[in-house]
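Subgroup meeting minutes
Present: P.N., E.W., G.H.
Scribe: E.W.

1. P.N. recapped why we're keeping a running log of single-chain structure predictions: easier to compare across weeks, and new members can see raw inputs and outputs side by side.
2. G.H. added today's entry (549 aa).
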Amino acid sequence: MTFKKIERTESAYDYQLLIKQLLQAPLVNAPDQEIVYRGTQRFTYRDLALRIHRLANALTALGVKPGDTVAVMDYDSHRYLECFFAVPMLGAVLHTINVRFSPEQILYTIDHAEDDVLLVNADFLQILEQVKGRIDTVKQFVLLQDEDANLPRTHFEFAGEYEALLAAAADRFEFPDFDENTRATTFYTTGTTGLPKGVAFSHRQLVLHTFGVLASLGTPAVQGRFHREDVYMPITPMFHVHAWGMPYIATTMGVKQVYPGRYVPEHLLELIESEKVTFSHCVPTILHMLMKSPKIDEVDLSRWKVLIGGSALPKSLCLSAMKRGIDIFSGYGMSETCPILTIAHLQPGDRGLPAEEQVEIRCKTGVPIPLVELRTVNDRMEDVPRAGAAVGEVVVRTPWLTQGYMKDTKTSEKLWAGGWLHTNDVAWIDGQGYVKITDRTKDVIKIGGEWISSLELEDVISAHHSVGEVAVIGMPDDKWGERPLALVVPKPGQRGKVTAKEIVHHVVDYSDRGVIGKQVVLVKVRFVDAIDKTSVGKVNKVALREKYL
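Output recorded in log:
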């Protein structure tokens, strides 16, 4: 079979999908739009472009060339946004370091990624001090410092301070064209076992992810829509999967952007109020933290749209947010998928449903966004039925999936077994095409041969009026093989008032009504002070198993 290719005129421009192309529209359509840092510093998109050019010149003067790796340790900031563009536009690789890793893990990722230059916020120097003398690949260090910050004592010598380097650099850089498949970014997964795994994404993948998500978020008429008049503020760290790719999307759209710096609940709420923020994204634990802040009652949240990901959105938290006027909805993805695969928008006919019924939809994992091919399969890679509660592993194909783990061929082959990326998430797909993640394959609880979803049981327990947080893990049982252990953090003022027996009766009530399977009545409840989390706020069930089993 012969396939015909498009004939190309010799003088035609070979348009590569490069990150630099994302800057074209906002500079034409919104050059004076604001980019705000901490509510104290303000820039325009025209300033952003100028600073990107200066950063490119400054990095080049430090010896950065195509193929080198530039690492960043910073809070969510305008500086980070500038690095999102300038570093890959040079043809170099941006390594976004997870500052919540342990010093040893950070050292491992620096060496594994072969970082050449490291830009570090003064607040994180104490982390590097713990591994000083062992950072072998980095040739130059650049200091990032806010105006009101004091420089701590340090053994590191800096090539310069970020703002001073930009001020001394030329304001024009000729960014080259190159192959769109060139690596643009790398970061390390926040897995709970073993060493962090490096994933990388190309210019082509990031551009396609930008437009795929943009198309999905811009399609709804009202609910969950992200449009050019919105004000965007991330509450997902920029080191974590490019803040879900949303800064690229916001910049392409030319919307007002607000970067909060360090996450302090009261400060975040102040920015939402003062900067009129209308669109954010975060994990459930961050939203839970904001909802508990005493300042929450002082802020009008009726214009705020929040995309939730990272872990399942509890229905009780969703309902509480909706009562405050928040347009809350779920999305799904993972580090290896760039990350967004699905978004849970309401169908047009569902917007008039009572809040309790809308919650059922908003808390689902969502429907695949454009260009995402998603299946639920059994162990033989056969599709499971798309009706009822038939569950299978989620496998996906889309242009923006990582092609493998860096320097780890064996694990990469397992990730892509059968030509599909394996998520290790268990889910079912309903008649309308909504995906509902029910568990991780490793977190499913097997009771007498039956699979029980720890996430569904967590959702039921979190609906109890005395429960602040809950995590469910499987504990060994001689008779049943496993039984659920619910680790419960009571709400403030409820410790000592709520009993384990009361929680169990609550679960039994849901079971009797057919909301959840009968086997969950075997649940054992234990009250704890806190739920262990990963560095990006997800429940760390590996740590919980080690601690409580």
